[in-house]
Design goal:
Length: 69
């Protein structure tokens, strides 16, 4: 049972990561809480708000799955 949950969590996290990556590449408008720093050839992007939203969604999905199993 724990193994299934860990595998499912990994799949969900991978999907969310891919979605965040695609949102960055498509020029998704920045929302408050996402940090972007650019200086010269260096740029750093930290999508804090997206990560919090993804964490909440993943937590709800895992909660629902564990109630079903």
């Amino acid at each position: 049972m724990i193994g299934k949950i860990i595998i499912l969590s990994g799949i969900i996290i991978t999907i969310v990561g891919i979605l965040i990556y695609l949102m960055e590449k498509t020029g998704l408008p920045s929302i408050p809480g996402n940090f972007y720093y650019k200086k010269g050839n260096f740029s750093f992007y930290f999508p804090l708000t997206y990560l919090v939203i993804a964490s909440i969604i993943i937590s709800v999905i895992i909660y629902i799955i564990t109630r079903i199993l």
